[in-house]
From TrEMBL:
Membrane topology: Multi-pass membrane protein
Main location per the UniProt record: membrane
PROSITE patterns according to UniProt: PTR2_1
Record localization: Membrane
Coiled-coil segments on the chain, per record: none
Pfam families in the record: PTR2
Organism: Triticum aestivum (Wheat)
Protein name: Major facilitator superfamily (MFS) profile domain-containing protein
Keywords: Membrane, Transmembrane, Transmembrane helix
Family: Belongs to the major facilitator superfamily. Proton-dependent oligopeptide transporter (POT/PTR) (TC 2.A.17) family.
Amino acid sequence: MTKHHQHLGLSFRHGAEEERWVDDSSVDHRGRPPLRAATGSWKAAMFIILIEFSERLSYFGIATSLMIYLTKVLHQDMKVAAENSNYWMSVTTLMPLLGGFLADAYLGRFRTVLFSTVVYLLGLVVLAVAQLTPGLRPGGGSVPRIHETLFFVGIYLVSVGTGGHKPALESFGGDQFDDGHAGERLQKMSYFNWWNCALCSGVLLGVTVVVYVQERVGWGAATVLLAAVMGCSLVVYLAGWRTYRYRVPQGSPLTPLLRVVVAAVRKRRLRLPADVGDLHEEDGGKKRLLCHTEQLRCLDKAAIVEHDGEGRRGAWRLATLTQVEETKLVVSMVPIWVATLPFGITTAQVSTFFVKQGSVMDRRMGPHFVLPPASIFALAAVAMIATVALYDKVLEPCLRRVTGTERGLSVLRRIGVGMALAVVAIAVAAVVERRRLHSTATMSVFWLVPQFALMGVADGFALVGLQEYFYDQVPDSMRSLGIGLYLSVIGAGSFLSGLVIAAADHVSSHGGRRAGWFGKDLSRSRLDLFYWLLAAISAVNLGFYVLVAARYSYKQTVKAKRVSASDVECATAVAA
């Protein structure tokens, strides 16, 4: 047998082994390398997608009715209710930063989801107790202080549960697909689309069925229903434990980044070598190595090898080129994160002021049925489901053929399209609100269809794009934290929305000396002017986002596991 035939035989056996076993640092439930045919991909992801469906059903069953509950049950003013709602959504969507860190560093994603679901259930139980116990329920126009206390304790326990549940679950689902396998890599792109379809299906039922139970049966009965669904989803999640691929936590993912910064500062006076190959790099083993990029060259000094003693090669003195590039990735994300915050502010209006608009409009659908105000949110969910499905099955395949790239439309361009549509949606909302204020008759709630539908389409582009971006572009050891960063865009946006409301009210009312934009109810408010303010902020910010996105360098990985000094073959992880 010739050497050529021997080489072909070895290559064939190596390819067969790669096809049989997953070689991406994940393990099966027994801690061994996973068998590809028995673990991961869609067979495992379906269990995870199902629990996401039930969690979003519970969350939106609470979130979309929160403004109604605060104003009608707790008798809060519209401005106070909007601020409380925004602050709760802010905490709920910022908590995943802590949850993602704990999942990546110490608990692991599987256990983080498990513990978070238990906390989530506890929050729902506290809510049910406050709403069903006779001595605690509001009645006769008065609200017992203990009811209000238990209510806020319950919803903030849900926030804590969501903080661990959301980042760990979505990244755990992404872990079921091997980036080094061409077929599974394409499946992962579809995974984020269908994840959002399941998410929106949960939203759809949450703002229709659950809200209907709240309106017709009672708030307590609806909360018991949500708790039962979450309990069942926990059983489903545990049922798939044998098919999952697990990642063993390796300690704080922030420590290597800090080491790079410290090493670069220590060697700031050294001159960078002319050849990038002279920078320190090691065989990554199962870890993916990253290609060198020209941005933030000052950090490259952390990988300069000093030849005057072993003490110069400590972890806080010398970093690998891959660790340097991982630090660059995180730093480069900051401008993108900042540029997407106005989109988060716009998104916050959908479940607050958009729903409040619907509550004062004609919601009759025939002689015997009145649409609950929170159910109007279903329009956005339907639009997002349709957008994601069409994008996955029609638009993306067409764009792949036209551009010749694996993705079709780059992830940052997808986000930009969604942000542009959100500007149009908030402008349409301003036009509709102005017409409502000047209308002599009560307008039909179907006037809100365009703004809800446009926001749903915008979410189908921007939110899915943000999920992919923050999952794919962070270092592999930070993927739960990456999902937390995506959610923090919405959380920080909700928090900023509350600040913008307070600032706009202060300025428009001249410090409270006259009527401002936000009265006790919508008929005495100028919500249309507030919407135009948001549209202007978002439009200006869109220009800033385009500039930032145009300068962004995507993560690049080294194909070969061993790299030589000068010839490294790189493949972009995300097509530009």
